[in-house]
Amino acid sequence: MAEAVIVAAAAASALAIAALAAATPSGPQPTPKRKSYVVVYEQGVTKAAARAAIRAAGGTLVRENARIGVATVASRNPRFIAAATRDAALVGAVRNRPMGRVKPGFIPKVDVDMPAVRRVLNGKQARSARYRYSKTSSAEPLAGHQWDMRMIHATPEGSYRKQRGSKRVLVGILDTGVDGNHPDIAPNFSLELSRNFTVDIPSIDGACAAEADASCNDPADVDENSHGTHVASTVASPINGLGTAGVAPGVTIANLRAGQDSGFFFLQPSVDALTYAGDNGFDVVNMSYFIDPWLYNCRGLADDSPTEQAEQVAIIEATQRALDYAHMHGVTLVGAGGNSRTDLIMPSPVVDTQSPNFPSGTNHSRTVNNGCLDLPTEGNNVISVSSVGPSKIKSDFSNYGYGEISVAAPGGWFRDDPWSLSMTAAERTIAGTPNQILAAIPENVARARNWINPDGSSNTINMIRSCNGSTCGYYQWIQGTSMAAPHATGVAALIVSQFGERRGRGITLHPQFTQAFLEASATDTPCMTPNPFTYTHKGRDASYTTFCEGTPIYNGVYGHGIVDALSAVAFDADLHHGDQD
Fold it and tell me: What is the CA 565 to chain-centroid distance, rounded?
């Protein structure tokens, strides 16, 4: 981890509080009549001028993230956003979600195509919940299911021999939470450095009454969704004779919770988590989400109301400031490329029908263009990752785009052909294994889904149990660019471990060097053939057709190539930066 994180636990806690509330007066909390907003200050204005503008618009300061000029404000003024946008001291304001409630049975936003996945898998393979897996030299009992790790050579014969990652390297998981007590995460998990920056949306039948603890506020080692735990496991599950191993099984991970149990990720938690990462010595952060409620944030789009336009401008400005702050403080930023099967350079206008996605029913059709941004992945200095299946063909759902995608990584694709000729003989022996990514799931989530038999065994094709003596963990298969990004994050953590410089008790490597190593060591991958590539043979319609622009060295589908853990840590030392200041 970067030098800044090496402090006593008490000092770290004090720094965390200071990072989010520097020079912040306490103010009244939002009520049903007093709504909450995130306000973005204009660059260069004084805090006094910005606070005066907030008061003039009818707002009261609740707290202030002085590092990037963003504040939480309460106001009874129904036209607060318009008033804030008119003031020259402020960029604008965004409604501070959540507002409203979620209905029982709500499907989390971060689950990708899971109803279809489960229908196909249960229909084709429900005859047996047992899996065969090839025995490898790995100490991990479920390694045979990890085609993804073999693809990027994160194996005992590959990168694990040379570099498993240093405990001094700190990776932040900006997600729905991390189950820090999962036995295949706990050895590498830092509760001291973990934080929860969000509050869950109350369910329609009460204030989070359906949750195990009946609370909308969760501890920093809890994940009641499962998405964040899966991501964390892919990055850094240890080699401990249990379950699976991550790409960087020796690094330290921490939960920087920005996403709710519902799967929604709103602006304030995202910018606060990024600011905290910059102030507390994080080396890499993984961001497998987009910031709600807008799939694409646009400036002045005719299809949006003036209030909606102002909100999106504020989201763009605040998010980029937070990304810049983290990057300038030594954090390598990795983002999921997105699951909308969209060419992100948008050579033709794209129709977005799902924004705004919260509150429910407020979405409308809008024609977006290349000036619109999928955030955080299209933010400056973010390594954007596309997804491939076992055959190395782009997952049909994955976004792409020349100049937008940095690298590709295995993210799963259940429609892929497990018998592809591009796979090794060992991979072809894994008959029946889903072509998705296997990683940890919290036991509490598995039980809530009724996936566990009375004897503790799995009763579903979607999950498997692994035990080492009396210690057992559960693991699920899911897919998405959310699953691709943590593979790149893990490789980035290995790069920092291998080539970073010790400073104090930490290790640091400038994010630009980390990204350069990551991209240069990736495996050059040519565009799919034929080009354009259609997915009709997989039951998909013409909207999934992908045109890949570029060469094997760089193209819009694979970026600089598919990440490779072994190549990254064995990279030519002569290219090491050497004299970093």
Answer: 19
Distance, CA of 107 to CA of 449 (rounded, Å): 12
Place of tokens 């006094």: 48
Q: Which is it for the CA torsion 120, 124, 130, 133, positive or negative?
A: negative
Amino acid present at 578: G
Which residues, 6 or more positions from 263, have their beta carbon under 8 angstroms from its beta carbon?
108, 109, 110, 111, 176, 225, 227
Beta bridge partners of 321: none
Residue with tokens 């759902």: 397
Structure tokens at 324: 């810049």
- Length, in residues, of the chain: 581
- Nearest 5°: phi and psi at 473? -135, 160
- Pseudo-torsion of CA 528, 530, 536, 537, nearest 10°? -80
Strands of 382-388's sheet in order across: 195-196, 252-257, 170-174, 284-287, 332-336, 382-388, 407-410
Task: Give the position of tokens 């990254």.
Answer: 568
- Residue 390 φ/ψ, nearest 5 degrees: -60, -30
Comparing C-alpha atoms, which of 567, 566, 580, 570 is closest to residue 513? 580
pLDDT tens digits along 509-555:
999 999 999 999 999 999 999 999 999 988 899 999 999 999 999 99
CB neighbour list of residue 305: distance below 8 Å, 6 or more residues apart: none
Q: Hey, which bits of 142-275 come out as E strands? A: 170-174, 195-196, 252-257
Q: Which residues are CB-neighbours of 477 under 8 A, at least 6 positions away?
A: 412, 434, 436, 437, 438, 462, 463
**Residue-averaged pLDDT of the chain:** 86
pLDDT tens, position by position, 295-317: 999 999 999 999 999 999 999 99
Q: How far apart are CA 462 and CA 439, in angstroms?
A: 11
Q: What is the pLDDT of residues 328-351, one digit of tens each?
A: 999 999 999 999 999 999 998 999
**Can you give the pLDDT at residue 16?**
36
Using CA atoms, how far apart are residues 314 and 274, in angstroms rounded to an integer?
16
| Contact between 335 and 383 (Cβ < 8 Å) | yes
Query: How is 106-138 classified by DSSP, letter by letter?
Result: PPPTT--SHHHHHHHHHHHHTT-S-------S-
pTM of the predicted structure, to 2 decimals: 0.88
**How many other C-beta atoms are found inside a 10 Å radius of the C-beta of residue 512?**
13
- Residue 138: CB atoms within 10 A of its CB come to 19
> Where are the alpha helices (H) located in 89-248, listed in sequence order?
114-125, 147-151, 159-162, 227-236
CA 333 to chain centre: 10
Q: What angle do CA 170, 524, 383 make, to 5 degrees?
A: 35
Q: What is the pLDDT of residues 371-400, one digit of tens each?
A: 999 999 999 999 999 999 999 999 999 999
Cα 191 from Cα 302, distance rounded (Å): 46
User: Nearest to residue 36, comparing CAs of 91, 88, 100?
Assistant: 100
For strands 70-75 and 35-41, give the pairing: antiparallel
In angstroms, the CA 458 to CA 4 distance is: 43
Q: Does residue 359 have a cis bond before it (omega within 30 degrees)?
A: yes
CB 319 within 8 A of CB 43: no
Q: Of 281, 311, 279, 285, whose CA–CA distance to 298 is shortest?
A: 311
Dist CA 353 CA 265 (whole Å): 19
Give the residue among 285, 318, 289 at the shortest CA–CA distance from 5: 285
